[in-house]
Amino acid sequence: xxxxxxxxxxxxxxxxxxxxxxxxxxxxxxxxxxxxxxxxxxxxxxxxxxxxxxxxxxxxxxxxxxxxxxxxxxxxxxxxxxxxxxxxxxxxxxxxxxxxxxxxxxxxxxxxxxxxxxxxxxxxxxxxxxxxxxxxxxxxxxxxxxxxxxxxxxxxxxxxxxxxxxxxxxxxxxxxxxxxxxxxxxxxxxxxxxxxxxxxxxxxxxxxxxxxxxxxxxxxxxxxxxxxxxxxxxxxxxxxxxxxxxxxxxxxxxxxxxxxxxxxxxxxxxxxxxxxxxxxxxxxxxxxxxxxxxxxxxxxxxxxxxxxxxxxxxxxxxxxxxxxxxxxxxxxxxxxxxxxxxxxxxxxxxxxxxxxxxxxxxxxxxxxxxxxxxxxxxxxxxxxxxxxxxxxxxxxxxxxxxxxxxxxxxxxxxxxxxxxxxxxxxxxxxxxxxxxxxxxxxxxxxxxxxxxxxxxxxxxxxxxxxxxxxxxxxxxxxxxxxxxxxxxxxxxxxxxxxxxxxxxxxxxxxxxxxxxxxxxxxxxxxxxxxxxxxxxxxxxxxxxxxxxxxxxxxxxxxxxxxxxxxxxxxxxxxxxxxxxxxxxxxxxxxxxxxxxxxxxxxxxxxxxxxxxxxxxxxxxxxxxxx
Length: 626
Known about the structure:
The protein has helices at about 1-30, 35-65, 220-225, 325, 345-365, 370-410, 420-435, 440-455, 495-515, 535-550, 555-575, 580-590, 600-625; strands spanning about 75, 80-85, 90-95, 100-110, 120-125, 130-135, 145, 150-160, 160-170, 175-180, 185-195, 205-215, 230-235, 240, 250, 255-260, 265-275, 280-285, 295-305, 310-320, 480-485, 495. It is of the alpha+beta class. A hairpin with a 3-residue loop joins β16 and β17. The longest helix is centred in the middle third of the chain and has 43 residues, at about 370-410. The protein is elongated and about 100 Å long. The chain starts with a helix and ends with a helix.
């Protein structure tokens, strides 16, 4: 106990000594009167700066915040991005610029080489590929770009409709509002409003700029680029304009009421019923080697008038799949959005919309896979066209039976001087036999629009997009079950089995149908040598294969089935329905019947007689000169 007590006393004495030393130190270093006054002044200055800083922060917060209405359905948020979800979209509105910065389309996927199932979420807008800007001229002459302004979201919900108002404050207590209305469909209402904008500008107009880089979302990159371009419609009309093949650059003197940045199967559309005056737009294809993430670069500009002293424009965004059924619904009535689907102009478009699409949709309701829908569709089309095919083959058979008699006429009337007589005798033979060489060409001409319409149908029917069949994983793109080295020209690293099978079937059909026979006959005097055409017929399958190897596999599958059916039809016609001996007997019977000359035959006869007289006069003139 004595030791502990002694230690406590020593500690107390040490603390007293340390305190005395500290007091002595502070007394010696005490500031002078002048130093105290200077310190007091500095403290007052610092306090004033602190108060001013607090005041500025409060002012900024007041300017950037949106006053809450009395309706409790409104929610207030500070300047920032805002995301919402609807039955069709996942949307994000950018706090900087106030425009749509992200849009995921539900119910669809994009093609991806990296994923196991070759699928990933489909974003029409993301990662800065969409830019919307209003450019005004400030009172100081400097440009004001809304894409650089900070916007704050205010949200109001009414049942299934969400209204998002992105607001940018304007000096003097004004504001600029982008009002978005999102419902259950593919439409986003878009209003541009202002209050106090006259404090910033005296301009009577502003420039609207919309730039968009379309994502590369399809397997067939060449087809994706080919079928992507700008579409627009002139205000007050149903005239929809577009330009295919490569880049499209355009400017119009007339107003347009909507502009569409079209991708192969999806379109981003901005509509304005009052019309965009003096529009300028276009697009350029993006080289996959330069940018593999995007396929096309779009741009659009229009100068909008400012009515009064404030902005008040009511527009509409549509981010819509190019499905004919959707685009012809009541909500799009009068918009002509269905014209964005490139089914073709005039007759070609009519065939695709009212023939192929009707048959295709009817068969698709049966619930089978789309490959078998195409199979049945081919059979239906062939049944419809079989009478034309029968007539074409029958005329070919008649010409084949008449060939010996035509050769006799050629032998009888040799030489250029007998050309007219030779033609007269040939036409007379056709008339008596009841044959018309042109009637065999007419069915082929009738089938030509149908043949070409299919080139536009299969790559643009969204129902086939991403649908697999046999070894093809997408019927709107090439099938690539067989991969090839990249150094092989024109093949793009793959071989389409459907395309190759179609070409083989085409060659077999040519052989069985006798399509090459007419090109093997010696030419008549004065007529071109058609034997050279047979070489073109041999080269044609090669050209077709190179083209179809990179085209929609659904089209190659259709043509394969079509040619197999053609082979079967020809065999039936040739061996059952048509017999050369019976045709010869029919021709002889026709010859024995008195024939009433038609107006066309009579006219041709008159022309030949005139030509014969002209030939005689020329020969007489030549003899007179000699």
